[in-house]
Amino acid sequence: MNDRLLTVYAPPVEEDISPGSDLAAILVNALRRNRIDLKDGDILVIASKVVSKADGRLLSVKDRAEFEDLVKDSSNHLVAERTYASGSTVQIVRTHSGTVQAAAGLDQSNSSGAVVLHQEDSDVSAQKLRLRVEEAFSVRIGVVISDTISRPWRIGVGDFALGLSGFSGLDDQRGKPDDDGRVQSVTVR
C-alpha cells in the first residue's frame, strides 16, 4: 500500500471575474496573497464557470423556452427528458465535447442572470492557464478545469474534469492486480 499525503488549499479570490478578466494573473495573485507556493507536480483545479466568465462565454436568454433552445444547440444527443408540473423541461444530453449533463452543463447561478457556457475547448483553456501559472512560479504543474455533474433525477452533485493540461488524468490499471490479486483487464481510472 502506498501512503500519500494530499493537501488541498482553497485560496479566496477577492476580484470579481468578468469577461476580459486576466484569470491567470488573478489566480497567481490569489496564490501569492495566501502564501501558497506551488511546487513541481502540484495540481491546480479551477471551476469551469470562472474560466467561462473570464473568457466571456455568457449569453442572455429572455425566457425558459430560449434556455431550452440553447440546451439543444449545445448538445448532439438527448439522453433523457422530464417535464415538470410548472411546464419546465429538464433534459439530460450529450454535449458537443462528449459529456453527459443536465441542461448541457449550462448554468445560470451566480452569473447575474446570464447563461454560462462551457469553453470552446476546455483542454486548451487549461493549457493557457497552466503555462502562465508555471511561468509565474517557475514550476511544472497540472491544471484541471472542473465542472459540476449530477446523477439525473437524484439529489446531490459532484465535480469532474472537463479540461486537463500538464498530465494525462488517467490511471491505466489494465494488467495490474487489484487489492485481491485479480488482474484487471478493462479498468482505466
Care to describe what's here?
Helices cover 23% and strands 24% of the residues. With 189 residues, it is α+β, with helices and mostly antiparallel strands. The strands form three sheets. The protein has a three-stranded mixed β-sheet with strand order 1-7-8. It has a three-stranded antiparallel β-sheet with strand order 3-4-5. A two-stranded antiparallel ribbon has the order 2-6. Helix 1 packs across helix 4. The longest helix is centred in the last third of the chain and has 16 residues, at 122-137. The chain is globular and about 50 Å long. The two termini are 18 Å apart. The mean pLDDT is 90.
Structural descriptors:
globular, alpha+beta, 23% helix, 3-stranded antiparallel beta sheet, 189 residues
Write the layout of secondary structure elements.
Layout: H1 23-33, E1 43-47, H2 48-54, E2 58-59, H3 64-73, E3 75-83, E4 89-95, E5 100-102, E6 115-116, H4 122-137, E7 142-150, E8 157-165
Parallel strand pairs: 1-7
Antiparallel strand pairs: 2-6, 3-4, 4-5, 7-8
Helix pairs in contact: 1-4
